[in-house]
Amino acid sequence: MNDSTSFDLYLEPWLTARVPRMAEYSRQLADFYDWVCTDVDAQANYTDRYAPPALETYDRNGEVVNRVVANRWYDQQHQELYRRGIIGLPYAEQAPHLLTFAMGYVLSQADISLHCPVTLTGAVAYVLSAHAPDAVRQQFLYDVARMDGLAKTGGTWATEQHGGSDVGATTTTAVQHGDRFALHGLKWFTSNANSGLALATARPEGAASGTAGLGLYLVPSHLEDGRPNHYRIRRLKDKLGTKGLPTGEIELLGAEAVEVAAPPDGFRLMMDALEYSRVHNAVGSAGVQRRALREALAWAKSRHVFGHVLVDYPMVQDDLLRMRVQFEAGALLAFEAAITFDEAQHDPERRTWLRLVTALAKYLTAEYAITAARAALELIGGNGYTSDYPAARLLRDAQVLTVWEGPANIQALELLRLLAPRYRGWEQYQSRMQAIQEKLPVVHDKLRKAMQSRLEGDREAVAIAMRDEQSAQRYARKLLHRLSQSLAFALLCEAASDAQTTGNPLPGHSAWRYFEEIEPPAFGMEDDNARRGVLELLSDEAVRSAHVI
Question: Which domain holds residue 328?
């Protein structure tokens, strides 16, 4: 582990400064990190290479059992995560959801195939807790939030073959029978296909077309008498990565379900579930960046090439510098969303900022996760391309982070909606940026001017993108990219400002080095002081880290 009392040398001090209550969980997170970087990482490698899940449709007597069989190691660790409270602590002890997100950040450094079902289970728990009718909440919430090793896991079934991200095109129908509903349809991409409780979108008989006609339903895997519910897992997907995660096609054959929300609220609540998952996607992506950086740094510090240690070569140093500042940018952006999630539970005025920063964070961190995993593999070279090293699995698994819970184009459309006058998204974005800028001390005048220049460019970009419908469609993704990098830079500046009060100049160097990444100076004109500062951060981390996962 990287320190006897810290789950992350960089992130933990920043988190506890922003949310002092997180200090209560320092020992718990450190123990969790120890377990993840040893036992969980070993299991992830074993499952990926030798024992992925399999579908068992019938038992030996020909009876339908409709279950996914995973190896025992994976199953045990899956339940151990819930026993450790990764879902239950916010409900049993009123811990902040930030704790769950921090644990997800750690878990993703070893096994995204476990982080995904945890994310979905958390989304189900959140919707049941915050939005379900009292009777539904009392009957089902405990099942997914319990910490005794017997928790049911969750799923969110929205994607259909013909619609993809267009959830409004849902053709799954819901037929009412008393106080229950029977669902008919095909959900095309269901991660954690063996979940015990799943949220599913469906259209009741006679409901309107589009998203306004969607209800949200809770589908148990088994009926009250113990028999399997009326759906069939048609097959498990053969995927690029996340080999340990069972992802299936589920055919609903009159599956018994409980109504969580009738139209027109079904779509909105499913979006709340996806928003929770998107925050997890962002912190998970930051975790991948962290793991990739550690692997690359460990290799570079130990590998001798042409008579020198690899890390002594300036080109290699620049690769590591880029990985480091992009990791810092991604981590701060992801946890800005995670912190805002808790704030929005108590202050509805924070909802727009939550949606906006989540879209930015989900997009940029996923892009950076791919960049970091690829950079680590390339630096390690041929060894990194083999399954003997974790870099290959990391890259394959990281690719899903750009797709889960809506790819970049979907996040860009979300950004456009939030920038519309009714949501006042641009006002909130500009206010957050200006507050950071005004906070910067005189010693960081260069960062303040850079922030001002960046914000002016953002303002021009928004004006161009929002001038008409054609411009919005053309420039939405470019705008998403720009604003996400601008906000990440601002958060680095804020961290530099806070660190200056303790006399630590290194975060200021990281902020400037990141600015040079997103606004490249003339060839050969990089700031050497900033470069040396980030190299010092890398060197300090390498010395203080006892081992790499």
Answer: 269-544
